[in-house]
Write a structure and sequence with these properties.
The protein has 432 residues and is mainly alpha-helical. The chain is built from 18 helices and no strands.
């Protein structure tokens, strides 16, 4: 609350994300629903939809990261928001199976523009919060996103069931317009530190775009901590990539038939449970990090949190009711929410400002490449296994990320430094 109340620029960015994420979840539930309706609930069609949502983001992310490190982050966010206003309205023309290509194309465009927006936003956040507010800022940015996963998916599900899909698509378009306005209120100089601003001013005589792109890739693969985060997130995505198909099949097909749920409401209920769990985890992350720092246990916590959350989600595959499935989803996501806030703060603090956009988008892009690929493979797997079996497989694969963490690092070498002055950022980087 102190960060929100005392930092106008961060507050504007957070407000923009809140509004656009709300619209995004309306779009997600409505887009998934209309694909289900016009394709007669084809799991292949759902799998293609998820690939279109994830894979373009992954493929474009490395270029987007180099782009936002080279040009105005504020202008990139505004331009991509305005472009997405028009794209969101394209979904209104999908009325039959022959129009599926339109839904896929619009999803690809939203994902592509989203990669540039996310790269600029993530790179700018540490500058807007300052070192002393980074953990709180990270927790707020992701907790509001995950809260919107809960609220937006629930509202999107009910809106689709009551008013139809077109209303959800219009809300999504308006949300991007509001987001562009809130970003416009942020001064451009607030999104960078002075050293990076000077590099931008001299970019005409500096390295080329491709050189900077290669620099980012080289850093990601030669810096031990950055590579660890990259490997861990990719491994997690092996199981996490199935979550889209799991919620769609478990809620929209399995429990809809078993317990008589409305398919859209059942799917939204699972996304709501996951979103609320992640939100809770993010909101308690600051307090948890203080306790972990006092006992120097951040490394142990990250590894075990990943393993236990995977086991809990695998256990959801044994549950006989949608309610019990949602409860275990909530608990597993709450645990991973705390872990992710701690992990992401360590990662952000370790990255120099001039290269932050490239590294964070490369990490996110690699994760989503695997995530999107396994979304499609999970859709194909529905012809051979049940969604409950897929849930158990997903949990076990996600837990392997904790094993990778322990394999890469022994002992407790990482701390957030919450009890130290936040001005000692360089010693923290050297520790990592």
């Amino acid at each position: 609350m102190e960060l929100i109340g005392g930092n106008r620029n961060f507050r504007n960015l957070l407000a923009g994300q809140f509004i656009s994420e709300l619209g995004n979840w309306f779009n997600f539930i409505a887009g998934l629903g209309i694909v289900r309706v016009v394709s007669d609930a084809s799991p292949t069609a759902a799998g293609i939809f998820f690939v279109c949502r994830m894979l373009p983001f992954a493929l474009v992310s490395p270029f987007a990261g180099a782009f936002v490190d080279r040009f105005s982050r504020r202008q990139v966010m505004i331009a991509t928001d305005l472009a997405r206003v028009g794209v969101a309205l394209i979904f209104l023309s999908v009325t039959s199976a022959d129009d599926l290509w339109i839904a896929y194309s619009a999803t690809i465009l939203l994902s592509t523009f989203g990669a540039f927006f996310e790269g600029a936003k993530n790179a700018a956040t540490p500058n807007l919060t300052g070192p002393e507010g980074l953990l709180s800022g990270t927790a707020l940015m992701f907790s509001t996103r995950f809260l919107l996963m809960a609220v937006g998916s629930a509202l999107g599900g009910w809106a689709a069931a009551i008013f139809g899909y077109k209303v959800a698509f219009i809300i999504n378009a308006v949300s991007f317009l509001v987001s562009a306005y809130t970003v416009w209120l942020i001064p451009d100089e607030a999104t960078r530190d002075q050293g990076t601003a000077d590099r931008m001013a001299n970019k005409a005589s500096g390295p080329s775009f491709l050189t900077e792109l290669r620099e980012g890739i080289r850093y990601a693969f030669t810096n031990r901590f950055a590579l660890t985060i990259l490997l861990m997130n990719v491994i997690w995505a092996l199981g996490g990539g199935a979550i889209n198909i799991i919620f769609e099949r478990v809620g929209g097909v399995h429990f809809a038939a078993l317990e008589g749920w409305n398919p859209d409401v059942a799917v939204a209920m699972l996304w709501t449970a996951g979103g609320l769990g992640l939100t809770l985890g993010m909101l308690v992350a600051h307090r948890a990090s203080i306790i972990l720092d006092r006992n120097n246990r951040h490394s142990l916590f990250i590894g075990w949190a990943l393993i236990i959350h995977g086991i809990l989600f695998a256990a959801a595959g044994l549950m006989p009711t949608l309610f019990l499935f949602a409860v275990l989803t909530f608990v597993s996501r709450a645990l991973i929410g705390v872990e992710y806030a701690v992990q992401e703060t360590l990662f952000q603090r370790s990255l120099p400002d001039y290269i932050r956009g490239r590294i964070t988008t490369l990490d996110r892009g690699a994760e989503l490449t695997v995530f999107g690929s396994f979304s499609y493979l999970s859709g194909c797997a529905m012809y051979y296994i049940t969604p409950m079996t897929l849930t158990m497989i997903s949990g076990v694969l996600s837990a392997l990320a904790g094993v990778v963490w322990f394999g890469r690092h022994s002992g407790d070498s990482f701390t957030l430094g919450m009890r130290r002055s936040e001005t000692v950022e360089e010693p923290l980087v050297s520790e990592i």
